[in-house]
């Protein structure tokens, strides 16, 4: 990467390129780009630059019918050290041999590569996710698992695995970019960006997509779907597994076989996971005490709840809450610098915003 500036924290300006595929989702692109813009605005420095690419530099139609004219043709990616593929509808028919050849060339140049929404399909098709963990929109999870057995698929909102960055669709790319910005320039900046976007909290890699069970099972196994619905409706007072089986006219052994075959876990493990996910939501979004959380999520005691929580999420619930509260603290504001009258770049345009340079960037060694 060639940089023309170095922010006060000593790190060179990073340039991110976005490859727009036909029928890409506009909300995913905006969710990835806007945090970069706001990082510049709030820091008052050019921390990031970004460019869009397409085949031949031709206009690309988003999935909502909006035409986008990219900045450049994809044969000139030298301005970016990170390239993120923006996918969307009909990704299997959109990725061409030329896309694959181009992405492989970038990988040989040791570029960091990413995909948002269904963009990771293109990377997997090029063999660039073999041996990596990967996220994709839940609608394509099953298809990618079948098509690319060497790729470790994850239901997480986003996944950062070495030099591969992948996320699901919608607003999930924002969480991924906020995480990267926080890692590069500090948590205070990413928290301030979240506040500017009225984003309640920055989700992390442990947050999973809500994958509809009907999508996983299709129209098959209605009894399994009914059992899961019963579990979800009875988190505070969990139903005994024998009773669950009886409700749908199955034996307990048949119930266990169904869960192992279609959900790769025991019924009790699945039930526990539902309760812990609910506890995590309440922990981050409410001020309920740990005792109250344990009770409403069906745990017999607070120590038992804390033990299960730590085993599942890798962090005690008390530490999880402390981290969540930290991310919601208001950023320390600095005196805004004078606005520029010559908006020649994204950074200079940001000078006209009242929040320009409102977050201090501490100098790092």
UniProtKB/TrEMBL annotation:
<keyword id="KW-0805">Transcription regulation</keyword>
<feature type="domain" description="HTH araC/xylS-type">
    <location>
        <begin position="225"/>
        <end position="323"/>
    </location>
</feature>
<protein>
    <submittedName>
        <fullName>GlxA family transcriptional regulator</fullName>
    </submittedName>
</protein>
<dbReference type="Pfam" id="PF12833">
    <property type="entry name" value="HTH_18"/>
</dbReference>
<dbReference type="InterPro" id="IPR002818">
    <property type="entry name" value="DJ-1/PfpI"/>
</dbReference>
<dbReference type="InterPro" id="IPR009057">
    <property type="entry name" value="Homeodomain-like_sf"/>
</dbReference>
<dbReference type="InterPro" id="IPR052158">
    <property type="entry name" value="INH-QAR"/>
</dbReference>
<dbReference type="InterPro" id="IPR018062">
    <property type="entry name" value="HTH_AraC-typ_CS"/>
</dbReference>
<keyword id="KW-0238">DNA-binding</keyword>
<dbReference type="Pfam" id="PF01965">
    <property type="entry name" value="DJ-1_PfpI"/>
</dbReference>
<dbReference type="InterPro" id="IPR029062">
    <property type="entry name" value="Class_I_gatase-like"/>
</dbReference>
<keyword id="KW-0804">Transcription</keyword>
<dbReference type="InterPro" id="IPR018060">
    <property type="entry name" value="HTH_AraC"/>
</dbReference>
